[in-house]
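Record 1 of the preview.
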Amino acid sequence: MDPERFLVTTMILRYYPVLLLLLALVLAGATVWVLSRNRTPDAATVEAAYATSLPAPDAPLRVYHLGHSLVGRDMPAMLAQLSGEGHEYASQLGWGTTLRAHWEPDVEINGFETENAHPHFRAAHEAIASGDYDAVILTEMVELRDAIRYYHSARYLSLWADLARAANPDTRVYLYETWHALTDPDWLGRLDGDLETLWERRVLLPDLARAGTERPVHVIPAGQVLARFVRKVEDAGGIDNVPDRTALFARDPEGGLDPIHMGDLGNYLVALTHYAVLYHRSPVGLPRQVLRADGSTADAPGPEAARVMQETVWEVVTTYPKTGVVP
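->
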């Protein structure tokens, strides 16, 4: 045998067991990492975590919103008006911003200067670490499937939740479930299915598996409210000034439909949902006329549309245990 080939063969035979061991360790480590990354608790653990309602607040809340343009400026301003005197809020927003981008100092937040040019801006790390807030509301970018796949949504939800929990043991942390674009051909079907398969199993519940059941992250189910209200409207052939789902969404100056951002009617519906979850109160009977963040008068739903909105919010919030609300 050629001496050089003989030497190589001898080295391979000598170190073959070591190479096998190293390969096994690498594969085992990768398996553990994958399993831990996607681990969710069993059904009994989830049920136990959300079996008990949170106590209803007995005073106005201080609320922090972290997210993007599906939070926006108008919805938190509407929530403050619906909640009454004493409700305070701050936010940090971006354009399509991930939880990761908000957390990592070296990741650019698109639209940061534009979205945060208002009196309610407060830098996220400083705000949440202060422990000043009764509620911290987090949301992830959409398309949610891309956020989960590329931007580690579950990990960064846990990082933000841990920061809030460490700063103040009384702070409640919420995941704000949003929606996807109307251009999706299965828009309602995805609202139905994404709650469990994406928002819960891929974003929310890994935190429960890791952090335990003592202080779980709760959910503001705006997407579920949106789906149920739209079905009521379209089954009825329209209600007041809401003829169909598009009436909830914004329009550009030329009247073109914005398929992802809410207009005044949609923001009002989402604000009602936040109100019901945060305050444990039925929104039925709340004013239907509110102001935008800039002080201008928002378009109001008609009286019947407002009533159906408010009733729908309370139906959803009180039948989904992860809100923490029991009627």
